[in-house]
Amino acid sequence: SRLWAVVPAAGLGSRFGAQLPKQYMSLAGKTVIEHSIAALLRCDELSGVVVALHVDDKIFSGLPCANNAKVMQIVGGAERSESVELALAGLSAAADQDWVLVHDAARPCLSDQDIQALLLRAREHPVGGLLAARVVDTVKRASSQGEAVATVDRNDLWRALTPQLFRYGALRDALIHCRERGLPVTDEASAMEYIGGRPLLVEGSHRNIKITYPDDLTMAAFFLAGGVN
Ligand code: CTP
Ligand code: MG
């Protein structure tokens, strides 16, 4: 079976609040999305990468990576899950048993070691898996009044990161299943959970942050200057 990647990059970065979507902000000499795609392309066994872009995107096609023979572009949707579903539909060369890595354009600090750990461990699992990080803060359950009602045991709580790795056919079918039922899908693992799958949690680096607010860009620049590999 072959290995593919999908990069959801059709968001507008409303929380970041810049003129341009956050994946096009400058970071250590290139744009955020170029770091995210470069990390995937360092994996030699990858057959291709499909990037889901906003319908009005005028920037991606001007980046050097748009000319890479392994990089394909499609138009994404209004939700991240829809962008991923459309990207999978655009991967006409993929077979159901192939594996697909889904990685946020907004995560530029992905290390080779984390990709390799995910590939090694999740491909041994019947469902697949995702990079994840342990929750470090004490977690509270709140009432509707905004008061702490209980402290949640954090020993079995993880933060879902990307990449997430699943079989092409199973992920496509899970996303369709969830969309048809209006189930909220915020990552690929949640779609697999809804159809009864139990994706493997592979502990990844805490440096693999998602750019959400401007301060995250400062943090990413610091991590990349030190080298994530
Ligand atoms: N994404 C996408 N299609 C959407 C929404 C998001 O492909 N309709 C992508 C984003 O471009 C990003 C990743 O999914 O790479 C994670 O989403 P998020 O961090 O929420 O990015 P935005 O939606 O752009 O940011 P915000 O929610 O602050 O508007
Ligand atoms: Mg969003």
TrEMBL record:
> What is the protein name given in its UniProt record?
2-C-methyl-D-erythritol 4-phosphate cytidylyltransferase
Q: Which NCBIfam families match?
A: ispD
Q: Which HAMAP family match?
A: IspD
The protein's site described by Positions MEP for the nucleophilic attack is found at R154, K210
Keywords assigned by UniProt, alphabetized:
Isoprene biosynthesis, Nucleotidyltransferase, Transferase
Q: Positions of the site: Transition state stabilizer?
A: R15, K22
Signal peptide (residue range)? none
InterPro entries in the record: IspD, IspD/TarI, IspD/TarI_cytidylyltransf_bact, ISPD_synthase_CS, Nucleotide-diphossugar_trans
Q: Which Pfam families match?
A: IspD
From the UniProt record, list the reaction(s) this protein catalyses. 2-C-methyl-D-erythritol 4-phosphate + CTP + H(+) = 4-CDP-2-C-methyl-D-erythritol + diphosphate
What role is this protein assigned? Catalyzes the formation of 4-diphosphocytidyl-2-C-methyl-D-erythritol from CTP and 2-C-methyl-D-erythritol 4-phosphate (MEP).
Q: If you read the UniProt record, what top EC class would you report for this enzyme, in one word?
A: transferase
From the UniProt record, report the name of the gene that encodes this protein.
ispD
Listed EC numbers? 2.7.7.60
